[in-house]
Each structure stands twice: as C-alpha cells, then as structure tokens.
Specification:
Elements (H helix, E strand, L loop, with lengths): L1 E3 L2 E4 L11 E4 L5 E3 L8 H9 L9 E3 L5 H4 L10 E4 L1 H11 L10 E2 L3 E5 L2 E7 L8 E5 L4 E5 L2 E2 L2 E2 L9 H11 L6 E4 L5 E2 L1 H14 L5
The chain binds zinc ion.
Zinc ion (ZN) binds next to loops.
C-alpha cells in the first residue's frame, strides 16, 4: 500500500506465519527497510514489481535489527545494492546465529546520528532492548518513524530473546516518544497514522506495557 507519495508499506498480514513489515522509500534513491524472511519475500517482490522496481534498483537495504524475520532476505540483494545495519547488532547476531542463518556483511554501518541517502536525511536512533543494537529510523522531514520491533500499534517488542533487556527497552521508548511523528511504521502489525494516534499509542504503551518491563 502507498502511505503517501514516495513511501510504500508492504504489511505482512498472514498471521499463520511470522514475518515483518517491509517499507520502501522511493526517491532519488530507493531504500528498502527490513526485507523480511527469505521464504516469504515473494510478497515484497510482488509489491516492488507493481511499482516497476527491480531488485537491482533498490539502492540501500536497511535492517532495523538482526532477527531473521527482518533481515534474512537481504541475501537476495547484490551490488549495486548496499546493505546497512548497526555494527553492534551485526556482531551480536553474527555470533549468536552461528550456522543457523548467514548474515551478509554490511556495506556500511548505521551509527546513531545523521544518515543521508540521496536527497533524504534521517536520524538513526539507538534503541536497544528488544535486541542489543536495534535502531529506529526517523525521517524528520516527513515525520515518519520506522520502529522495527521497539514499539508496535498497541504493543512493544519482546525482551525475552537473547540480548533482550526490559529496562533498556523502556529507556529507548522514552527516547522516541518525544519525536514529532505523523506515521509510526512498526516492524509488525498495522501502521499508526496521525500525530494524535501516535501519541495515544505511546501513552497506552506507557500505561500498560511499562508494567511488564
Ligand atoms: Zn525482532
């Protein structure tokens, strides 16, 4: 679905299988966020085809964190497409994944702070808790926040996976809730659209889910 001109969401809607949402920023550079599981990549490919974007026209693939349901399909991309994720996350997941799944080596690493891709600039925000090197990507000009598995529509990421940390997740959520956001695009579930809805969602998370962290 088109969120607005230049931003597309491939929302995963089959609840019998776990996979993440994938997002495409279409502009001077095409940026794909969280390509998802390898065996379920067909729905992303279909979405890209409908937009006449072949895989080699994706300039950068960004992973919010290293779990296979977000990252695995990165392996379908090759140069000239670049792959980026956080260094600490890459090291942690590479060690942990062992032979279970292979993470391609990133072409560059995402550090907290500014990231410019083509004409667009982003804030990379360090948000550990669900995983140690998880990041959120804030597209300030468009007031869009890609949250990976930090927060969802009416929920938060698990903290019981290796490297998970409830205290850290709480701090991370506090850090992103003050941003000016019109569209909260999470790694799973529905989009939260509208500033008030985004604020209400953060409030609900604080009122309810913080009791469990
Ligand atoms: Zn995850």
């Amino acid at each position: 679905m088109k969120v607005f001109n230049g931003l597309h969401a491939f929302i995963w809607q089959d609840y019998t299988q776990n996979n993440c949402n994938t997002y495409l920023i279409e502009g001077s550079k095409n940026i794909l966020i969280d390509p998802g599981h390898q065996h379920l990549f067909g729905h992303v490919e279909k979405g890209l085809n409908a937009l006449n974007i072949s895989l080699d026209r994706v300039d950068v693939v960004i992973a919010t964190h290293g779990h296979p349901d977000h990252l695995e399909a990165v392996s379908f991309f090759d140069k000239p497409t670049l792959f980026a994720m956080n260094l600490e996350e890459y090291q942690f997941i590479s060690e942990f994944a062992g032979d279970y799944f292979k993470i391609p080596e990133p072409d560059f690493f995402l550090k907290a702070g500014d990231l410019t891709v083509g004409d667009e600039s982003f804030d990379v925000i360090s948000t550990p808790g669900h995983s140690p090197g998880s990041i959120c990507l804030y597209w300030r000009d468009k007031k869009v926040l890609f949250t990976g598995d930090v927060v969802f529509n009416q929920g938060i990421g698990r903290t019981d996976l290796p490297g998970g940390d409830g205290r850290a997740l709480k701090d991370s959520i506090q850090r992103i809730k003050t941003l000016d956001v019109e569209h909260l695009l999470a790694g799973h579930g529905d989009i939260v659209a509208g500033k008030e809805a985004v604020q209400a969602n953060f409030q609900e998370i604080e009122d309810y889910w913080f009791n469990y962290l």
